[in-house]
Amino acid sequence: xxxxxxxxxxxDNSAHKHFRDDEFWKVIPAWKDVTxxxxxxxxxxxxxxxxxxxxxxxxxxxxxxxxFYQDMVDGQHKTPMNIRITPYIFALMDWNDPVNCPLRKQFxxxxxxxxxxHPYYKADSLHEDVDSPVPTLTHRYHDKVLFLPxxxxxxxxxxxxxxxxxxxxxxxxxxxxxxVNQAKMDAAFDYIRAHEQIEDVVISGGDAFMLTPKQITxxxxxxxxxxxxxxxxxxxxxVAIFPQKILSDHEWFNAFNAVHKKAREMGKQVVIHTxxxxxxxxxxxxxxxxxxxxxxxxxxxxxxxxQEGVNDxxxxxxxxxxxxxxxxxxxxxxxxxxxVPGCEHFRTTIAESExxxxxVRGTTAGFNTPTFVCDAxxxxxxxxxxxxxxxxxxxxxxxxxxxxxxxxxxFFYFDPIRKLSKEAQARWADPAQREAMIxxxxxxAGF
Length: 447
Description:
- By secondary structure, the protein is an alpha/beta fold.
- It folds into three domains: about 20-115, no CATH class; about 135-385, Aldolase class I (TIM Barrel), CATH 3.20.20; about 395-445, no CATH class.
- Helix content is about 35%, strand content about 10%.
- The longest helix is centred in the middle third of the chain and has 16 residues, at about 250-265.
- The radius of gyration is 22 Å and the shape is globular.
């Protein structure tokens, strides 16, 4: 199996110190007269978000060819996610070559990008619903829970691991989208209070940016007032795709900061986990948003997803890591892509991820080097990318265990079939051979 990731580092040593600060949005015909002040306002961003293909075409004008428009329409027949894109991200896309633009790939699905799902994909690949003791809560790790109070986001990412819940119903997936529900929150809080081993709560969704200031206060204070809770992590992609909210939604920012300060006074932590995926997302807006957060002592960490054509090369990954570090964002994780529907074109192999981590390590300080992980399908949790029990590279089958998460269970991650040899692809086409290959890998792993 050939490694297709570019591992030759040619990055300018000072590239990470430069932040785009031009009026890039004026390339979009509909926004050519929008002032910097208007574009910097979070309400203008929300009001002008792109949520329909026809709206994208209308905004783009002559920048959108009829062929690309039809490709967008075709994408809506196949995608598990509707589109919702902030003008900030939409304007940063490369409209001279939208098909290959890493931002377009992440947020604006087109029909020509989709590939057949892997035979062993699952809508709930990580078993978040299976490991849910009460609605909106996943309890997998002994001292940590995942709390999902909302399914709403300021943007919908095409590679989302929770596309079964988020982004509204599409032709491909029927969903029950929900906002914040008081009864479900109360049940989640009751569960957390009753389990004293829980110290760490991740508030995600959806996206914490879409919680109102009152909801931020209510959730934050209720959790902090539980004696055994030590750490809260508010998960939002907003810092990356909607920095204007940090800069101009003062009510939201002040509510979050008040929860952060209350935690400090109690000797506890409240931090933000965000989600930059590629350097093209980063501008002076990002830097200024981080300056405001950093000035208040708010810790921000980043969790990226490895995606083909987005960040699967050494230069983009190192630039992303170093530019985040320069803004005082700690690179935390890089996930290999989950085996969820509609995302096969994004996925890379375990071998490619291993090779990229080896190439990244040593390019900057260890504490600013992210850990590359596989979130083991079936609820095994996050495992270091090289910690598999056995890896059949020829057939793309890796075998994993999680002794302190689900002792005694065995988990499998499967490389994209398109990246395997023709002989291996032929074996995968035969269901009987698939099962035999998996059984053989499990046996060689010692199970």
